[in-house]
Design goal:
Length: 238
């Protein structure tokens, strides 16, 4: 086969061989984006890069109705001066209060008092103390340091149940208050009660060993004075 004059000239000077040799060396370079995909690098994928099970949605992270954002005007949940509560027979009020305690129609979000306090649960240890006493939710939401039993009912109406407070002279408020006081009399804080797993420090929140100085993230030796740094023929504009 006869070469054309230009090809013959290049062949005679060895430039074709040099060019082909450079391209092969460049493609073989581990730093080259033009090189074949490195199977060993793919096989040695960083275990730290695997999907972290701690990233999964935590059921405890669901929005807590008792921790609803936004402040509550203290005037909504503290008895106005000059007002008087509904009066009735205690037994009747307690009975009516038990019904209301389980009534989801009092709320706008499908909750009832019993949703949070089923079987007398979810009460803080301070619930055993005589009213008025400190309640964390009242302090956090309104800055109120002490509440009466009926004011606590109103807080629950406004915050977890996302409803309007009950009328201060209503039978509903008097009934729920009477039932709450009845529950309080039988309540005994359990010192052996396990801490709420949702409140415990989430092991997934601990510093991830993969998040430390990752050996995989160390400076890439290919990033130092890179022999691939000269103008890459592969990067040239096509």
């Amino acid at each position: 086969m006869q070469l054309k004059p230009i090809a013959k000239s290049l062949a005679s000077t060895g430039l074709v061989t040099l060019a082909l040799g450079f391209s092969g060396a460049f493609a073989a370079s581990p730093c080259s984006p033009c090189g074949p995909r490195n199977r060993s690098a793919r096989a040695g994928a960083n275990p730290c890069a695997a999907k972290n099970p701690c990233v999964a949605k935590n059921p405890c992270a669901a929005k807590n109705p008792c921790g609803a954002s936004g402040k509550v005007d203290p005037r909504l949940v503290t008895r106005p001066k000059g007002t008087k509560p509904y009066r009735g027979k205690r037994a009747d009020l307690v009975k009516a209060g038990q019904t209301l305690w389980n009534d989801t129609k009092l709320s706008t979000n499908g909750l009832s008092c019993n949703t949070c306090h089923i079987n007398g649960g979810a009460f803080q240890a301070t619930f055993a103390k005589p009213y008025p006493h400190y309640v964390g939710m009242a302090d956090q939401q309104s800055g109120v340091k002490k509440v009466t039993a009926e004011e606590m009912v109103q807080f629950c109406m406004v915050v977890p149940m996302a409803a309007k407070p009950l009328a201060w002279d209503s039978k509903q408020l008097a009934a729920l208050t009477a039932y709450t006081i009845g529950l309080q009399k039988n309540f005994k804080p359990n010192p052996c009660a396990a801490k709420n797993p949702c409140a415990a420090k989430n092991p997934c929140a601990a510093k991830n060993p993969c998040a430390g100085r990752n050996p995989c993230a160390s400076k890439n030796p290919c990033a130092s004075r890179n022999p691939c740094g000269p103008r890459n023929p592969c990067a040239a504009k096509r």
